[in-house]
Amino acid sequence: MLGKRPDGRRVLGVEPFDRVIPYVMDKRSGAQNMFHGSLPCEGMDAYIAKKKQEGIELNYMNLILAASIRTIAERPKLNRFIINGQIYARHKIWLSFTIKRTLRGDATETTVKIPFEGTETLQQIGDTIDAEIQKVLRGEVTETDQVAKFLMSAPRLLIRTLIETLRFMDRHNCMPKAVLDASPWHSSLFFTNLKSLGLDYIYHHLTDFGTNGMFFAMGKEKMKVYCTQQGEIQAKKVVPFSLVMDERICDGLYFARAIRLLTKYVKNPELLEIPLEKKTEDVK
Fold first, then answer.
1. Exposed (0-12), middle (13-18) or buried (19+): which is 281, by Cβ within 10 Å?
2. For the segment 156-193, what is each residue's pLDDT rounded down to a tens digit?
3. Which of 13, 60, 112, 265 is the most exposed place for a label (fewest CB within 10 A)?
4. pTM over the 0.85 mark
5. What ranges in the chain are assigned the alpha helix state H?
6. CA–CA gap between residue 95 and residue 63 (Å, rounded)
7. How far apart (Å, rounded) are the C-alpha atoms in residues 202 and 24?
8. How far apart are CA 102 and CA 81, in angstroms?
9. What is the rounded CA–CA span in Å between residue 274 and residue 257?
């Protein structure tokens, strides 16, 4: 109540026009911007090969997730969310992604949600994510699974009422912290790796339930043909991706600079070996 939530704080130092936008576009699904781009593979390939000689196995997902978390730490508006027309800044960076327990077509899947401070190194982020993945592969039940099982244990006629009750509690800042911590729809970034399925990226919608403001879909790497300033035709390997974002959390220029920062880290993964002294805090 009164603007206080366990997962974030009210952002008050916002321009009047920016404060109006959440009332004009009151639903997240109606405020979606859809962006697609590509990340160069050259720097990642060289870094992955170097680390393999040191006995460390890495992949594109490891590097892109670490670069994304670092980018959010340095561009705090990306970590905002909108609830009931109000703008909030998250206390931590929450990453959610779905894992197939096996690659069989009928295999079950689950979603994990991991908190980060944003100051972690590439190694720390990779170790944390790998540990969560191994838990799932061992058959351990995640917090998300536990909450879902609890909801689905209710009589069918009550499930919709329970969900609507959670929506009401979320809008009025009285959602139980345990539910917020387990809900993948209350994340800074929801990530899906379609490369692992041999597919290209998709544009994944945002949900009106929860607070998730960004959905990142990574596709299978491919060759991209482009023309240099000298008029030469060249090809380079890239990882295509899409990013669906709640446009109410930041403007286009801020977002464009964030994409450039993400690309910088992907091109130079060595930068992620250095811990960030302190993440950039949002305005009061």
1. exposed
2. 888 889 999 999 999 999 999 989 999 999 999 999 99
3. 13
4. yes
5. 16-24, 42-53, 60-74, 122-137, 143-152, 156-171, 177-182, 252-267
6. 14
7. 27
8. 33
9. 21
